[in-house]
Amino acid sequence: MSSNILKIIPTDPSFVPGNTNQQKAKIYLSKLFNQEDIEFKITDAIEFIDQGSNFERVSCNFCGADIETTAWQNAMDSAFLKKFTNLSFTSPCCNKLTSLNDLNYTSPAGFAKFVINISDAKNEIDVNNLKDLQEFLGTHLRLIITQY
Asked: What is the pTM of this model?
C-alpha cells in the first residue's frame, strides 16, 4: 500500500522561518490536521524535495516545452556537486537562464532547507489555509504531494 506525504516548502530554497513563526504554523496546522503526523524539518544544506512516484515530467518555465530527462538530470548532478547552492539552468528549448527551482514539475517539486511533512494527510490545504500559513511563516509556499 502506498502512502502520501504532503510537503510544504518555501519558494525561496534558502528560507528558514524563525522559531516563533514555526510555532504559530505548528499550532495552526495541528488544528487542520489533528490526526496526522506533522514534522518540521530543517537541514543544513538545500535539498531537492521530490514528489516520489508522482514524478511525470519537467518543462520550461518560459516556453512550456518539455525538458529531456537526461538534460535535467545532468543539471541536477551539477547542482548537487555544489550542494544546490547554485540552481542556475539554461533551458535547452529557448536558451534562457532560469533556475532548477523555477522549472515546471508535474507533479510539483522544489528545493528547500525547511520542510513541513504531513504524513497521510486526510485534508487538503485550501487557498485560504495556504494564505494563512504563508502569513504565519512569512514567505510564499509550495505544496508537494509525495507518493511512496
From this structure: 0.93
In this prediction, the residues of the chain whose per-residue pLDDT falls under 50 are: none
3-state DSSP call for residue 31? Answer: helix
DSSP state of 147: E
Strand order in the sheet with 4-10: 37-49, 110-119, 4-10, 141-147
- H-helix or E-strand spanning residue 21: helix 19-32
Cell numbers linked to 101: 527551482
The three three-digit cell numbers of residue 59, written as one number: 518543462
Q: Is the peptide bond before 2 cis (omega within 30 degrees of 0)?
A: no
Q: Furthest-apart CA pair in the chain: how many Å? A: 47
> What radius of gyration, in Å, describes the C-alpha atoms of the chain?
16
Rounded CA-CA distance 7/87 in Å is: 20
